[in-house]
């Protein structure tokens, strides 16, 4: 049996968690925004997005998710408020495996890593229930310190502000709990110039105690606001 809570916490540690809300008021002219204006408005903007596609890759290490499994990558879709589907690539005892899961409200389904068959998880094991609406990417944007603009860049053809800074791992305690490695992580974020939506995050260093010190994670968002279908597996 896989520790679903640790799997989901590890997978979503860098991911957006949505909440209902709006920014309120007119935005400042984009050219007048300071680096902290960009970060704070991006945090507000991403809360308004209902659906997105995510892709998370790790280099220089993997993220332990319980029972000997170490996650290398994950890709899937999120739909507010409580739907998600993802494919996780991991390894156990040096053997590569893939695990898929689907969350629909209070129902969670996961593939058995040995048989590949879908299984309904026990009642009350809804991964989304473990997350506060203001964690994930929002907490990264809200808690970056020593932020600096690195200049303009492009992500998937979108012109972006490229910002770097440090994020205290304590800002992610509500996601990883007592597994957090206290300290700061070097962080870069790419934010759309026209819509102020975050397109990409890079975090260098340990967030969880069992990770290697030189681990790097690259999280990319795409298809922001586009409809997505998430259904129970058959």
Salient structural properties:
4 helices; outer membrane lipoprotein receptor (LolB), chain A; mainly beta; 234 residues; 12 strands; single chain; twelve-stranded antiparallel sheet; 14% helix
Compile the SSE list and pairings:
Blueprint: H1 4-12, H2 35-47, E1 51-59, E2 63-66, E3 69-79, E4 83-92, E5 95-104, E6 107-111, E7 118-120, H3 137-143, E8 145-155, E9 158-168, H4 173-176, E10 184-192, E11 198-204, E12 216-222
Helix pairs in contact: 2-3
Give the ordered list of helices and strands: HHEEEEEEEHEEHEEE
Number of H- or I-type helical stretches:
4
CATH architecture: Clam
The CATH topology is what? outer membrane lipoprotein receptor (LolB), chain A
Please provide the count of β strands.
12
Largest sheet: 12 strands, antiparallel
CATH class: Mainly Beta
Tertiary shape:
globular
Structural class: mainly beta
Low-confidence stretches: 16-28, 129-134
> What Rg do the Cα atoms give?
17 Å
Helicity, in percent?
A: 10-25%
In angstroms, what separates the terminal alpha carbons? 21 Å
The average pLDDT value, as a whole number, equals: 82
Report the sheet-strand fraction.
35-45%
Number of domains: 1
